[in-house]
Amino acid sequence: MSEQHNLVLLTFPDATTWRSAFDEAQHLPGLRLAAAMERSADGVLAVRDTYAKGAGVATVGSGLLGGLVGLLAGPVGMLLGFAAGAALGSAAEERDANEAGAALIVLSPRVPDGGALIALEMREASPGPADELAAEHGVTVERIDERTFTEQVRAAEKKAEEKKAEEKGEEADGES
Hints:
Blueprint: E1 4-12, H1 19-25, E2 31-39, E3 45-52, H2 57-70, H3 75-107, E4 116-124, H4 128-137, E5 140-145, H5 146-175
Antiparallel strand pairs: 1-4, 1-5, 2-3, 2-4
């Protein structure tokens, strides 16, 4: 069976019960990213925890590669190469974090009042492990294909950019 790249959502009607499921989810096969969001009974949303498998690897790996290339220029070159490589890796990780933030905004309406939502980005060979986790904790599980979800996020970003441009246009008209 081929792997499916999915966003797996676990919805908790009670915000006090998600922590153990979040901790267990970090050991699911194929997990790449996880985020837990809670909404208070009065509707205030908070991101309570996140997990990224291999966080920092791009920064350190790029730094080491830059340092090795810089070694050709001597000790100072190695230092500068490491710094430049680490900066590039860090920029890549920051871009990924910004994309994850946009995804959480799109998911926020799915978090019930007084409840929580755990979002898992996974490459699943089988739905079994995530389904078992959901069953153990008595919560619902929903899957969204990665391509479909990416389209939803891009559409939301485009709508936000259009609204921002529209607001700027109204400000400019008001100043005339």
